[in-house]
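Example 3.2
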Amino acid sequence: MHSLGSIFCEKGEQNIGRKAYSPAYLLKLYIYGYLNGISSSRKLKRECTRNLELMWLMNQLVPDPKTIADFRKDNSEAIKQSVLTFGKWLQQSAYIKGDCISVDGKKIRANASRSFDLDHVSKKLEQLDAQLQE
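Structure, written as tokens:
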């Protein structure tokens, strides 16, 4: 298994400013936000100051919203790789079988101001069925 420092971007080599946050803490914060439906960097920062569970998880660190956003932007491939590695570990450890893949949701366009007739609705349903088959 990779160490987090080897796949995640680190802060520059300059010796100015604060010490960089560990990628492990920022990954924990990212996963916490994903599991709790919090995608906003500002809301994640607020959670770091008010949620006891997250205070413990982050060791009372409160990263700036820009730091959180930059971590997501700069490490998107490393985050994907971490999730894949974790999934493989779960399979190897027999926690999951890994033989079934599911999709979380479906995006559907909405237009509340337009009235629909039955022909239009049936065409839309056929289009949705075709998309689901793909």
